[in-house]
Amino acid sequence: MIRLGLLGATGRMGTLITSLIQSEFKSEIEVVAFARKGDSLEPLLSTDVVIDVSLPPVMAQLASLAVKRAKNLPRFVVGSTGWAPEDYAVIESLSQLTPVLVASNFSSGVFALSMILKDYAPLFKKLEYTPVIIERHHCHKKDAPSGTARTLQKSISPQNPDQIQTQSIRAGEVIGDHEVTFFGAGDQITLSHHAQDRSIFARGAIQVAKWLTQAPPQTNKTLGMSDYFESLKTESLGVS
Ligand SMILES: NC(=O)c1ccc[n+]([C@@H]2O[C@H](COP(=O)([O-])OP(=O)(O)OC[C@H]3O[C@@H](n4cnc5c(N)ncnc54)[C@H](OP(=O)(O)O)[C@@H]3O)[C@@H](O)[C@H]2O)c1
To answer: Which atom of ligand 1 is nearest to the CA of 79?
Structure first.
């Protein structure tokens, strides 16, 4: 049985992860620790794996506690978005001590979109198309552009991601839409991802957490969704 800690358990994502575990994963995962605002974060460190769906400063606080402890640490799946560089540094330190996977988006569809962009953005650039990202999210979302938009910017332009024009719309209860349009002189090409249900992120987070418990204990680098999907590819090919 995997002993899971959940940071952000009372939020939109946390609530969904808890109910999905109860409905679909209860024979293999048990939520043994969670922290509400004001609670001690220490109990989260006595688990096998922690899923973070809170806020970067809160996860950074937990990571600092873990780095101080340095031994017998759980693994970490970090899903919070909107990281400031000063908060993120401790995540990199934590990755030297225990496997840590950071993902701005746990859905396989967004991963596929970012792979398509990685492959084809150089061609669009050669053909002189200008990429523009438009992302829409619910009015409660705290960060803009979204973490996913930042990931897509990097897929299009790894060297100069900030130069990709990006517009953020925060309105209503939109779960998460990302649209990448390549504007040419006389035409335009649009690739888009539309999340219809938040459970695609919750299920992805749980699957990644399960996978992370099997990862080698020392990875020495922060893992991402590409590491997870690459390992699925080798598994399905029967490569060890
Ligand atoms: N990677 C992905 O696929 C993905 C998908 C969706 C969202 N996200 C990200 O996940 C995060 C959460 O999203 P959400 O929509 O679930 O937000 P939310 O509904 O606002 O939930 C935030 C959670 O963080 C908790 N929290 C805030 N301050 C805290 C503190 N000081 N100590 C302990 N807990 C604290 C909140 O607890 P209280 O209720 O007590 O305030 C709440 O449980 C955001 O960064 C979002 O961008 C990631």
So the answer is: 1
Q: Is 140 an active-site residue?
A: no
Distance, CA 10 to ligand 1 centroid (Å)?
A: 8
What is the per-residue pLDDT for 217? 83
Query: In the structure, what pLDDT confidence band is assigned to residue 177 with cuts at 50, 70 and 90?
Result: very high
Domains parsed from the chain with CATH numbers? 2-105+199-236 (3.40.50.720), 108-194 (3.30.360.10)
Q: Give the number of the atom of ligand 1 that is nearest the alpha carbon of residue 7.
A: 34
Question: For residues 214 and 236, is the Cβ–Cβ distance under 8 A?
Answer: no
**Percentages (nearest 5) of helix, strand, coil residues in the chain:** 40, 20, 35
